[in-house]
Amino acid sequence: MKKTPSTVRDLMAPRPSSIDHHDTIVAAARRMRASGLVSIPVTGDSGEFLGMLSDRDIVEQCIAAGLDPATTSVVSVFQPGRSTIPPDRVVDAGVMLQIAQYPTAELPVVEDGRLIGMLSIADVAIPLLGGSDEDEYAGEEAG
Q1: Model's pTM, two decimal places?
Q2: What is the mean pLDDT of the chain?
């Protein structure tokens, strides 16, 4: 009996801590450090997902640019509009490629404008590569 292919929702990690776009870079960096994150979701005034702020954004767009991280807001540094993935998409090799091309190798899962989780290479590798007996469809071409 073939198993139904997994969706993004089945494999994603729960929504991580986020930062408001009006918060300072120092506040974002502290939250990232406390959570062990290399990037953090950025939310707008209504809690909508705006994009991701990475440690690289902080270094290149704030520190290297000579801005004061204690007074610079997240909105002036983060890169909006990066790739996201819907929760009901079937996980296939294309999803793995999309994640691998994302700078942090982790994609935000967005539904109705809200971040609901994150999907990483590790989340999809075992089901896609057939590392589990539970995944009988692994290795078959998605159709």
Answers
A1: 0.78
A2: 85
